[in-house]
Amino acid sequence: MTLMSLVRRSLRHHALSSAVTIASVGLAAGLTMSVFAINSQTYDAFTGGRVGFDAVLGARGSQLQLVLNTVFHLETSPGNIPWSLYREMADDPRVTLAIPYAVGDNYQGYRIVGTTTQMFTDFTYREGQGFVLRPGGRVFDESQKEAVLGYYVAERLGLTLGSTFQPYHGLQFDEKARHEDTYTVVGIMEPTNGPSDRVLWIPIEGIFRMSGHVLRGSGTVYRPTADEAVPEEHREVSAVMLKLRNPQAGFILNQTINQQGKVATLAWPIGRVMAELFQRIGWVSRILTMVAYLVVIVAAGSILASIYNTMNERRREFAILRALGARRTTVFSAIVLESTTITALGTVVGFLVYGAILSAAYVIVRAQTGVVLDALRFDHALWLTPAGMIALGALSGLVPAFKAYRTDVASNLTPLS
Amino acid sequence: MLLSVSNLQKSFVSPDGERTPIVDVPSFTLAAGEQVAVRGASGSGKTTFLNLIAGILQADSGSIQLDGQHLTAMTESGRDRVRARTLGFVFQNFNLLQGYTALENVMLGMMFGPGVDRAHARGLLERVGLSHRLDYRPAQLSIGQQQRVAVARALANRPRLVLADEPTGNLDQRHAGEALALIREVCSEQQAALLLVSHDPTILSSFDRCADLAVLNRAGSLPS
Fold it and tell me: Which of chain B's residues have a Cβ under 8 Å away from the Cβ of A324?
């Protein structure tokens, strides 16, 4: 028999109120850990994660829109830039890699991006890690109507090697806007756990020649024909994805293109652009955090209330314990230990709630952005929240513990005779 | 002398400030192993007298010396320690904890004293005839069985003195006699002194030494 056995008895004796309190603590702990973990993981994924490019060159306009459209395959395209700008970047010694993107079509709501085979041969989305194709697949032939699919889109749409599909015009799926061209899947990527998993990659030539598309690279409308190459002056791209030799190159290009130029926008550095987005929508995160804190406070209140409400019926129990020789500090400690135990059990439940919320967030965030959240990734919130809640639980126990401390033994033990 | 009380006084103050003397005992002693009954009518201060000796209540004045320790000079935690190690208590309404089994109730009597000794607790319950009810909760036991658990618990920490407050008050005549015999036997076996308060003449008559609280109290000091 120990102090803990007294606590265990009490929890069992007040099973319903204990269970409700443990559940509310679990909800609060799980919610708080989830808010912090999702915040930090999405921030990392969007500001410094597996992007692989240093800068994006696109039409004059919003840098944020440009990054969202090309790197995260969200948002609409701000417009096109002439092919010549791509050529300039590709030839610029300060640029180590320039890959053109042409967007504007989708399949079942998933983006189709026209690009070059460099995307699969030269590009690395993180240090030393390029796109890897699943066994049996290969990179598309730039002269053919072939496609390489991101892992997620292939999985979701059930497309396999040899499958065919017809692209739809626009970035939103509209079944009336189907192109006549048919593409064959020749490669499926291994997962990158990033936005690229949600993309259907086809040759950029395919976008130029897609039925119904017109090119305005030269300022006039040009309709490609099947039997002749598309002249470079008519070509246009949605963006040019850039890897720069060093940060100074980004600084100089930023000066040249954004400050002095008027035809294009350079989004650089990508992490900074996205960080600005998070600063702009930081209030959402702050509100979520405040809600989480409020839930924590409510949970602490419910611990206090649930124990305090039992104090009247337990006064006799405390008096008996005191009559058996328990000190005031012993019954005080028993109550604080009880509130601490409730919170500790609650935080265990909290990890289950955290797992459930992260699992739901995993599905939603992956479907919307391709970013994969990791419930097992260490976050300081995963130890700070339980530690903080246990401390708060102990504090919540102080009020009823003080009441138990002050229990008068003689008057609660037996009627005077 | 195991217990020595001198000039012990205790009053209660009503909400309107009126002070009512409850106990005013000039002298009372109890030898080690002795068994003494104290007679007192309802409201005569019997329970208060026991609570003072147990250190549950603090006396207004006077002294209580128990097993060589000056209880009245001790801090509250000191008195708690004495209660946990030197005293056993049998209450009229038994005061068993409802969420605990018979065995656990007895072990509770050890928890704050010398430490839990499951074998000793089990032995005590066997001694009072409850070896087949170790895992029963109080609500599952008869009144007589609950009383026996209370006796076993009072002796759990091998006390020098057992205080019994109307221990048979909730039992019928036959069971009261059996319970009293059991308490006295077990106290003798455990070499514990017994101080029992009661208003039941049958119970009181079985003791060689029986004091009347009205006589113990200083003549004329208490309201009649």
Answer: 83-84, 89, 108-109, 111-112, 153
Q: What pLDDT shows up at residue A311?
A: 80
Which chain A residues are within 8 Å of B153, Cβ to Cβ? 324
Q: Measure B84 CA to nearest chain A CA, in Å.
A: 4
In angstroms, the Cα distances linking B139 to A32, A146, B29, B143, B144 are 43, 80, 38, 9, 12
pLDDT for residue B154 = 92
**Are B80 and A321 within 8 A, CB to CB?**
no
**pLDDT band at residue A383 using 50, 70 and 90 as cut-offs:** very high
If DSSP states are collapsed to H, E and C, what string results for chain A? CCHHHHHHHHHHHCHHHHHHHHHHHHHHHHHHHHHHHHHHHHHHHHHCCCCCCCEEEEECCCHHHHHHHHCCCCCCCCCCEEHHHHHHHHHCCCEEEEEEEEEEEEECCEEEEEECCHHHHCCEEECCEECCECCCCCCCCCCCCEEEECHHHHHHHCCCCCCEECCEECCCCCHHHECCCCEEEEEEECCCCCHHHHCEEEEHHHHHHCCCCCECCCCCCECCCCCCCCCHHHCEECEEEEEECCHHHHHHHHHHHHHHCCCEEEECCHHHHHHHHHHHCHHHHHHHHHHHHHHHHHHHHHHHHHHHCCHHHHHHHHHHHHHCCCCHHHHHHHHHHHHHHHHHHHHHHHHHHHHHHHHHHHHHHHHHHCCCCCCCCCCCHHHHHHHHHHHHHHHHCHHHHHHHHCCCHHHHHCCCC
Of A1, A415, A416, the CB nearest to B111: A1
> Nearest-CA distance from A318 to chain B in Å?
10
pLDDT at res. A416: 40
Q: How many CB atoms lie within 10 A of CB A203?
A: 24
CB contact under 8 A, B111 and A326: yes
CATH classification for the domain delimited by B3-216, as one of 3.30.420.40, 3.40.50.300, 1.10.443.10, 3.20.20.80: 3.40.50.300
pLDDT band at A360 (very low <50, low <70, confident <90, very high): very high
The per-residue pLDDT for range B7-33, each reduced to its tens digit, is 999 998 888 888 888 898 989 999 999
Dist CA A229 CA A225 (whole Å): 8
Per-domain boundaries in chain B: 3-216
B44/A410 Cβ within 8 A: no
- ipTM of predicted complex: 0.91
Range 132-171 of B in CB contact (< 8 A) with A: 153, 157, 165-166
Say if B24 is an interface residue toward chain A (CB within 8 Å).
no
Q: Do A324 and B108 touch (CB under 8 A)?
A: yes
Buried b (16+ CB within 10 A) or exposed e, B106-118: bbbbbbbbeebbe
